[in-house]
Specification:
Two copies of one chain form a homodimer. Chain A is of the alpha/beta class. Chain A is built from 14 helices and 18 strands. At the A-B interface, α2, α6, β12 and α12 of A face α2, α6, β12 and α12 of B.
């Protein structure tokens, strides 16, 4: 028998209790043990909840309870959650958490603290998709060349609508908020921060690299315009918020940003609120994992799979995928400005003679060569045009300098926009 | 240190040796141990091989070798492989196998024989995709409602070409043979038998059900015609060889056959030699797994992941997913004739008055109602027409009887063809 205490009984926690109770037959058959939710800790006891386990407002009732084997941390946040998980581990209790922010900041401390005590966190990345297990165990024979993920359902819902129905960002965002797919303050999702937390967790498993969110390139989808959608369609791309980890020599690129992705790629076909993660291994090639990245029931499915692994004693896999550090490889984070990729650039200009020549000159000076070009008259403004380029591969530093110089040109009407291309 | 003996050193075996040697850095860091291929057993020593381990022609050199911890069975076939794996287990050696036929027939005997000795078989289904792990561990909280897989790359290559390039089955088959995607005798692949073996392995993990290949519905793709492709395109379907496991009450449908799949479904987007497996869990909803289902390097990636799991002692997960049998559920195989689904029917007729009325009468008598209808003149034969129907959901028994009656009509020129629809 495995006895579980749940700290934070919201949507996910309630679904965990339901699954443990309603699917008890199959869970017991698969794990060889009964897994029983014995106690929940909540902030507010008066809130109505559709579950039947005893509740407390005192975390000590779980953390210091000798009858509890596993602590389920579902409260969210970083500092308080870290304190609670730390206490649970020190008390010898296994931990399961769905808290990506906690892991984005403290995964290495927790690994060291846990030692041989299991910490499950399958639910922290891509909800119901077992991507942690796939990467840490299923693909363990491979050097990971790259990971490209769509790991934020809110952004993918918005971008899919913008592509398919030509609705503006701000209008789809409102719809997403009405449907409960986006928060009242959507910054954490649409700004790319949620996806960045998940990326750092996967990057640790793939590369053994210890990086904090503040160190990596993070851009959101707020500035995607109808012209960008139009260019993407014209040249056979979809636009996705991608989380990218990529090995180049002894450097690892880690970045989250909207990207133009060729329609033929499997990852470009992941639409709506769904998540998809494509992983390129040096031996297996590309595998992709698709499914619901959020939602109480899907996330709880991942939490319970961790509990079953603990019951089966299969959580012997090293928490972050490595038992000994990858000393020799000496992988380190690639500085943002060293990133090389293709770019798409949007420049709004006053339509007059010599404009294209001056722009081309600036691009040429920075070793940026143009791959495709589309010019459109500005529908809203007479005598204005929008120039849309894609480039061959060049350096982030050069693009940023070129964009700054373009923005300073007298005939350029607003700061030029850029979206990276992942071909 | 884990010492591995390999029985059968062909394409996959050679790649296993290469991965263990060339990726030794990351494998050691991830597993905490060195995993060393120490001996290979082959039929023919004189054959040139690009590997550097000692070879023998005597299986005893591996099976009775006290210096070998894990036996890798990569020889294929059923009876001899079963004898060898049995001996390995009796000698206390862990086993890793890529042999789907062996498991399709003997998985339950092997499970009982193994007890706590690990048997890894990730490579036996869908090559490099870690679908065994996903189903057995990642989705363990779920009752599995359905599995729909594209698990034969040869068939998917052929069907993709037929859909995209309007080439006839026999011509694409020749191309596939020339490219090495199909065997000289392609029956095992195009007849659906290879996919059926894989399906039975997944069905055991999902449902704890013990079924042999002879008991389930297996149809191949040999009879798909250009008219079928045409109908599929007209009504928004792709045609795929699907392996289907589906729970209906206390029965489990297990079937392998070509199917019309709506273009919007993620599984319909899996093209070429790639595999994809969609799994519907009662809690998580749909997740899908995509990647290379064959090939030496991809398959070896899965084999080595099993070796790493053994080194990490994470192979404590029950071999077939269940520790105690699912007695209560009492799931059993649904008889073929009880299957309910939608159907597409192709009937070639002499084009004369009253034909459609007689056909409709027969369908009506068997409670089959028509959903879509397309009539085409036969391009090659004057005064002939091809009638293409899709039906609403009805019973397999009724369809089979109706097809027999249609085939007996005087104006029906060849036996009617049928493809099931998976909507």
């Amino acid at each position: 028998m495995i006895r579980v205490g749940i700290i934070g009984v919201g949507t996910v926690g309630s679904h965990v209790v339901k699954i443990l109770q309603e699917n008890e037959d199959i869970i017991t058959a698969r794990s060889g043990k009964r897994i029983i939710p014995v106690m929940g800790v909540v902030k507010n006891l008066s809130k109505k909840r559709d579950i039947t386990i005893p509740l407390s407002t005192n975390v000590d009732d779980v953390l210091d309870n000798p009858d509890i084997d596993v602590v389920l941390e579902l409260m969210g946040g970083v500092d308080e959650a870290y304190a609670i998980v730390t206490r649970a581990l020190k008390n010898g209790k296994a931990v399961v958490t769905a808290n990506k922010a906690l892991l984005a900041y403290h995964r290495y401390e927790l690994k060291d603290l846990a030692g041989n005590t299991p910490i499950g966190y399958e639910a922290s990345v891509a909800g119901g998709i077992p991507i942690i297990k796939a990467l840490r165990e299923g693909l363990s024979a491979n050097h990971i060349d790259a990971i490209k993920g769509i790991m934020n359902g809110t952004c993918n819902f918005i971008l899919t609508k913008m592509m398919n129905e030509k609705v503006a960002f701000i209008d789809v965002l409102k719809e997403a908020q009405a449907l409960g797919y986006a928060e009242a303050d959507p910054t954490f999702d649409v700004g790319g921060f949620d996806a960045a937390h998940k990326l750092l967790i996967l990057a640790s498993i793939a590369y053994g690299i210890d990086v904090k969110p503040e160190e990596i390139l993070i851009e959101g989808i707020e500035h995607i315009s109808s012209e960008d959608i139009c260019f993407a369609k014209e040249f056979g791309y979809n636009i996705k918020l991608l989380t990218i980890a990529k090995k180049s020599g002894d450097k690892v690129e880690l970045r989250v940003h909207p990207a133009l992705v060729p329609m033929g790629q499997m990852i470009a076909k992941v639409d709506g609120v769904m998540n998809g993660i494509s992983v390129i291994g040096d031996r297996v090639g590309e595998t992709m994992y698709y499914g619901p990245g959020a939602g109480g029931s899907a996330t709880a499915s991942a939490v319970v799979s961790d509990l079953i692994d603990i019951a089966r004693h299969t959580q012997n896999s090293p928490m972050l995928g490595f038992i000994t550090p990858l000393e020799k490889s000496g992988l380190s984070l690639m500085p943002k400005e060293e990133i090389c990729t293709q770019y798409y650039i949007r420049v709004s200009v006053t339509d007059k003679i010599g404009v294209l020549s001056q722009i081309s000159q600036i691009l040429g000076k920075h070793n940026i060569s143009i791959s495709s070009f589309l010019q459109k008259q500005d529908a809203l403004k007479a005598n204005s045009a929008v120039l849309l380029f894609s480039t061959h591969t060049c350096k982030e530093r050069e693009i940023q300098q070129a964009l700054a110089e373009l923005g300073a040109l007298e005939f350029v009407e607003v700061a030029p926009a850029m979206i990276r291309i992942e071909a």
